[in-house]
């Protein structure tokens, strides 16, 4: 429910589903112009023009109190309307400033200034949205001409959400602040973990170089596996220290919101799901029974694409070059798809190239207030950058064509993936041009990745449901449960002697 503070982070990544239609053309020629979306206003500024500035919170809180008083007299409806929307803009400007500095923490998770400023802005933003939601709730309750200014722009469901809103408590503020500190610590650790040294039999290895030691012949395969598992266990302890406190903090937040645990809370409130953690158990059981065995058999018979056979220059598949590679094909699918990609390209609203301390994630989000879509990736330097761009630019297309204001509808995160993965499938039409003789191999890998996302999603969802729902859970119990379900989903053999596995921390 978009109006509630619990969805604030989810608001930054809103996507929906739309299908471009192909014209009937025996020659495979032009595609008809598409007209699926409603026009939206976007800033003419470039991303480089958006400069972070600290926004003073107190004037926002003062105006919230003043608006509540002003609205008590229905004769003030016109003035209330003007001041309310100016007030709304001030809240969303603060939201935009947080988006800008939060992106910087993904660009460099070890930028101490950005991390501290992001956490401070987020804390202020929580208070600002708390005040905003309180204004809407209290004015709607008045049921006068000022209330009509708001209710006329809201659905019945919106109105019910606002009327149910409860003011944030000091305890919630403290818990939210601590959660953000822990998330920042996890992100920072994730950028450093690969280069952390661990000593094994007098030799120091890192997660990044132990495979090199094996391929160089310095260690044999069994030793490589032993060292890799040792490093994974040591890193698990470091990540686990952060994650265990996150479990405690998030469960406390969920209880304050009336839920048994954070998993029960996150399904409806963060992910906007219309099914429960109980409902998903049947789906997960079906994935284990009907999908996993055949899937892993299929993977065993697959060959990897040979990038040396690709017809384009290597640079065409990586970094910001992906825009120039993809946009001619986007134009053949949909004018609107081309427009959304062209916007972020021409406005520099992306961050794709590697940088020290950059988080290993990819996403499309909207920078609030400016209604500017933004595409983030940490480029690998190979063709995966191109396929990742196709996925994320599917999200970006919806971000560009969707409203992101106080009364626009929210979307559940599961439906969002239909949009991005749908574009991946539509692009198969152009794979022979993009990948030449390797088109089928890349298409197969794309399909496998999409199917694997279902299995991986079930694994990590089940792991988290266990972690949040188990009272006084320990890190060892989490590692044991992870090993158990990895066997159930076929990731390792059922007779594998291991009782613990540690690699879940690699999914930040």
Condensed summary:
This protein is mainly alpha-helical and about 500 residues long. The protein has helices at about 60-70, 75-105, 110-140, 145-150, 155-165, 170-190, 210-215, 220-255, 260-270, 275-300, 320-335, 335-345, 385-400, 415-425, 430-435, 440-470, 475-490; strands at about 200, 205, 350, 365, 370-375.
What descriptive keywords fit this protein?
disordered N terminus; mainly alpha; globular; 17 helices; 508 residues; three-stranded mixed sheet
Walk me through the structure:
58% of the residues lie in helices and 4% in strands. Strand 4 and strand 5 form a beta hairpin. By secondary structure, it is mostly helical. The strands form two sheets. The protein has a three-stranded mixed beta sheet with strand order 3-5-4, sandwiched between helices. A two-stranded antiparallel ribbon has the order 1-2.
Task: Detail the topology: elements first, then pairings.
Blueprint: H1 58-70, H2 77-107, H3 112-142, H4 145-151, H5 156-163, H6 170-192, E1 198-200, E2 203-205, H7 210-215, H8 221-256, H9 262-269, H10 277-300, H11 321-333, H12 335-346, E3 350-351, E4 363-367, E5 372-376, H13 384-401, H14 413-426, H15 431-435, H16 439-469, H17 475-488
Parallel strand pairs: 3-5
Antiparallel strand pairs: 1-2, 4-5
Helix pairs in contact: 1-2, 1-3, 2-3, 2-4, 3-4, 3-6, 6-8, 8-9, 10-16, 11-12, 11-13, 12-13, 13-14, 16-17
